[in-house]
């Protein structure tokens, strides 16, 4: 019986209820009539413990936890590298923050000037200093726990709103080895509460942060969706937008479907596309017309192009002592020492010292054939002496890496997204370099190396970037420095899809900062 009819006299229509859409909606809802449309459902927070149980049982795969899969979520992967898209996303109120790990770092200053500083990709049309105050706002909005102890990070203006999580026991083992090798470690900023914050619990250590936090200590975008609704916004779930009605210079309406089989038309003065790095270009391509035969807002031909992700490199092994892994579901120490050594040959690297390598005792017990003393013996043998080090590596933006329309259709008869993913040689060389650093650290600990993810086995971190890139030249970019499309004067894009380059840190804090900056630009436009 949910009312999913359009909102009359809407000023702003936000498409997508993930972190970017939620922050834009919350920022504008007090002053404007805002409506948010999302393709997925509104999940019941009381069911999170049930989803946690599903997450730890071997029978279920990760997409099952948040009900991904089926004709609604079909996709193609035509590139030379297969892209497992549904492993990476959640359709629903809150979006990918419902299952993310919660790491939030600022891009480095050279990430904004990659072309001139490193000789790779374009420079952003904005500088770090332009985004710096919005980074600070984003950290307050999300509730970031951190410490100013990273000598390689960009300059800060004030402390994090919450104290950092203390280093784990295994961090202390890594620290001894890294000190002998001259490798600096530092804390990791987390979008989870180290103490109660804005009515939400502090972290209670469930350990299943990815893919579900039952306590609500880890930030997710329902925080700002709920706040936007309290300010007067209307949020409509299960309302996938089919296409955008438009003229030559403006979007007139979003046409969306509802579970009862009806289609509705939502009009507004301003439209914000916040569907992520895959669904945003897909919606623009689905909205092709005589005026825009190659896709809406695509006179540049850049819609869908330059798809990027972070590549993973990892090495792990076992040592002859207890490491107390799997006590928390996130990592607490990192190293960005090798980040700004990037150039044309090697990409930035962010090292991650895992707290969750090796089998967890719960998963081992649930999947074991043994019982009683035999199971206890196996747990004592298999659990607790593993160590692992991960790394994220930047991917170069390439036009031949893109999101297009596939040959299959979804449950509404629309072409599904086709992720045509390619990986460049610079990224693969950098993965080899990250592996060598990881091996040095583990060898210093006299570890027996038991696994490694190198160039041949690497995969994505599921950070979709670059498909509606930002720039000042309308012939090779989709949005301007304020994230308004060059072609349409009432359409903004709030997403990692606007990133011209990706850096090597997790993108969500930059998404949030850009969303807040975009909301300010929309406010100025509507107020003028």
Automatic annotation (TrEMBL):
Xref: InterPro entries: 4Fe4S_Fe-S-bd, FAD/NAD-bd_sf, GMC_OxRdtase_N, GMC_OxRtase_C, P2Ox-like
Record-stated family: Belongs to the GMC oxidoreductase family.
Gene3D superfamilies registered for this protein in UniProt: FAD/NAD(P)-binding domain (3.50.50.60)
Entry protein name: GMC family oxidoreductase
Matches recorded under Pfam families: GMC_oxred_C (PF05199), GMC_oxred_N (PF00732)
Cofactor(s) this protein cannot do without: FAD
GO MF annotation: an example: oxidoreductase activity, acting on CH-OH group of donors
Keyword flag Oxidoreductase: yes
Domain 4Fe-4S ferredoxin-type: 194-223
Keywords: FAD, Flavoprotein, Oxidoreductase
